[in-house]
């Protein structure tokens, strides 16, 4: 009976592209005390959660890996998620993403066959999988692009998200990035700050990053930057409560400049500090800060 279900269940659905790092995520979650099940047939999810929530045991953190390996049973996932909603069982979908080039390289390095291309080209399987997962990706509460992440960096992101994230409380990641290296695939909101004067053209500032005091003062003291920050904080002040009302668990805000070392870094740090002052859980990730050999000061 529904009234017997414990309200404390934290259910995570781990999914995404083959080769994007789901195994590493599961290992991290196991270390954090999650009960993890890999490749559970989607149709069994409602029965599995019934078993957990009606059990006298204290199993409250559960992670299920559901992906394309389910074959013909994979489409059952959408019906299973609908049943969870009707039963008022909260869940979060974590989707792991990576570029086609990265996934091809990983499959070649491990000499594994892609589940959708057992006898064909790996790239063909990746393209087909991306198409089949498109709807599920759109439903995800959090998307992590692992293209440029080491196993340790991915583990750090998982720990930052799950260890500090109290159930029902929105966590926010502010990511600085360089447009020359591509847009972050996992961004919910992306803003281009290349309209601001670039410290790169100041000889004394060029070797440093936006975490350097002089670079930060140069960027933040500009009247145009001050106006932008006020307007952007007003926008976030409007948007974030509505994301919370919709049940969103994680928000990725991407701030981009040309190289991802100066303007975007300084502005990301300032925005993160402001949001923390409003009581939000905020993590900062400077994706491209060291790619051009500038000093991390």
TrEMBL record:
InterPro entries: P-loop_NTPase, RapZ-like, RapZ-like_N, RapZ_C. Keywords: ATP-binding, GTP-binding, Nucleotide-binding. It comes from the Bacteria. ATP binds at residues 16-23. Residues 171-289 form the RapZ C-terminal domain. The keyword Nucleotide-binding applies. SUPFAM superfamilies: P-loop containing nucleoside triphosphate hydrolases. Residues 10-165 form the RapZ-like N-terminal domain. GTP binds at residues 67-70. Gene3D superfamilies: P-loop containing nucleotide triphosphate hydrolases (3.40.50.300). This is RNase adapter RapZ.
